[in-house]
Amino acid sequence: IRQGDGSVTPMALGYEPPSTDDLGQPVVPGAVVAVVSRNSTPHSPPYASHSRTPDATDQKYQQRLLVIIMDYSACGLPASLTEAAARTVFLGANGDGRGGAAQKYEQCSYGKLVLNATAFTAVTVFTHYTYILPPGMKGQSSWLQTSASGVGRWASILSATLHNYGYLDFTSPTGAGDVCPNAAELAYLGWATPAQGANQVDSRALPVGAALSFNLPATYLGPNGSYIRVVPDWLPTYNLYIAVRVNKGGDAQLGSPWANKVHIHEVSTVLLSNYNLVVYGGSWIGTDILRVHICRYRSAPQECPPVASL
């Protein structure tokens, strides 16, 4: 097992790796597998924490994070978080990056955004800082209060982090949800890929009255083939992103009104009638994999086939 620092730990002789990862996905030849030892002995059999098929991008961004805890004792506002507590919040109880906000970073980005636990530093300071950035510049700083909805909420930490990557959306963790980013955000961040043939569903790919069908895995399952990108060139409007969300993994806290459903994202409130589109939620064809159909009509939804015929 090659560690993050480049060192290698051998597996025990005779160890048989599991056939699936923790999410039930098969570990196929060529997959990249992350493993976590259940105890501290160097030859203990590991278990698979997740796997990715070979077509998943392996580009990884590793943050070397400095957490600055402000102390305004002179103003009656002393620091309410210790440096040790900050380490626990961000890296987990063991301080190794396998818990806390770091775990959610890795879950939600499918391993593409991680915190460097070794480089992580938390300090308490007593001075003020003012940052003035030129227009269009992406930031590298995040501001959080020591409250239950601030540094005590992993989604707030992820939300503040994502703002530094140039994307602001008042849904998912950038809003009030304790969940991973939605399909539009995943696409923007480059953390996930569209389903086969679903990167640009325009009028050529979607003729009037004909339905296109896709097998969409819930976004928590992994980065590959997890959304549909509709480019409605038949109307002067915005792109749509369609995905399936299930309350498991990084989306475990997805509320019941939104769990186990097809999600459709646009820059404002979505009315499919504005797009001359019908989106069907079909049958579950596997564990949290949904058959999703889309159809374009010219005048009325009745121009599209009934879902029972698809």
UniProtKB/TrEMBL annotation:
<feature type="region of interest" description="Disordered">
    <location>
        <begin position="1"/>
        <end position="21"/>
    </location>
</feature>
<dbReference type="Pfam" id="PF05548">
    <property type="entry name" value="Peptidase_M11"/>
</dbReference>
<feature type="domain" description="Peptidase M11 gametolysin">
    <location>
        <begin position="122"/>
        <end position="271"/>
    </location>
</feature>
<dbReference type="InterPro" id="IPR008752">
    <property type="entry name" value="Peptidase_M11"/>
</dbReference>
<protein>
    <submittedName>
        <fullName>Metalloproteinase, extracellular matrix glycoprotein VMP31</fullName>
    </submittedName>
</protein>
